[in-house]
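Lab notebook, bench 4. The sequencing result for the construct came back, and we need a structural model before the next group meeting so we can plan mutations. Quick request posted to the team channel:

Model the 3D structure of this chain.
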Amino acid sequence: MSFKTYFAYDHLRLDDAQTLEVLEYIRDIDGVLCVHCENGTLVNELQRRMLAAGITGPEGHPMSRPAACEAEAISRLCYLAELADARINIVHLSSALGLEAVRAAKARGKVKMDVETCPQYLLLDDSHYLESDFEGAKYVMSPPLRKPHDIEVLRQAVCNGEIDTIATDHCSFNLHGQKDRGIDDFTHIPNGGPGVEHRPGLIMTSFKNRLGVQDFARLMSEGPARVFGMYPRKGVLRVGSDADVTVWDPSVTWTISEKNQHQNVDYTPYEGFEIHGRPAYVFVNGELVVVDGEPTGVKPGAYVKR
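Done. Here's the predicted structure in token form:
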């Protein structure tokens, strides 16, 4: 019941008429459309201008995908969703300007909308693109990292309850052998970054004293389950729900590193972050799959019809 379309990337993006058609179809099956909101036409032109000006490194990535490209696409999607009377999910919201477009649509009161952001947009800013020796390529993801102001605005929006889900948009490419294909042209750097393994620790550490345990459960478990049609089988602890349980130990302190992660990728954008807490036990369908942050090797689970 969930689908994803794009307003950016020439090999993926739909125009407005195609998007309207998809929205109308999904409305009739009571689904939700997740949309990558960036104006692809503008991105293409700004990329061309960056390269013409001799800007070929990772710093060209955020320069060619400014917040206005995101905000315009979010606004356009909201109007299309209103026209179709369909439900949408704004994925990986990255900017204060994009949040303004969300707020404007909500104020009209005519759009059924869920909003998602990611740890990278709550913790990392665009200064990382200036790291030497092509290290800035680690952070080439779309939308790109934004300014410190955007980070604080989005963090406050999380605390205000304006964000329904904190996901990761996990899409990992190795720095060596994959991202370095764009060493002479930032438009050839594969877009995406790893983050799914570190999401709970990053969010619970960085929002300590600003959010409570129930907030973390809502943003990282209940929220996604509701958005994607899995609630109450997932996202809640009660009779009849799946026995998926994480027991979190907040007393443990550790440091994120490429050397101690389980993600199959040669870096982490959160290298050196100190984390407070880790999963002491994780149960899936009642079976113990993690002890003290390490997998037990058991792999239970079942297809979840939505």
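The first helix runs from residue 16 to 28.
Will bring this to the meeting.
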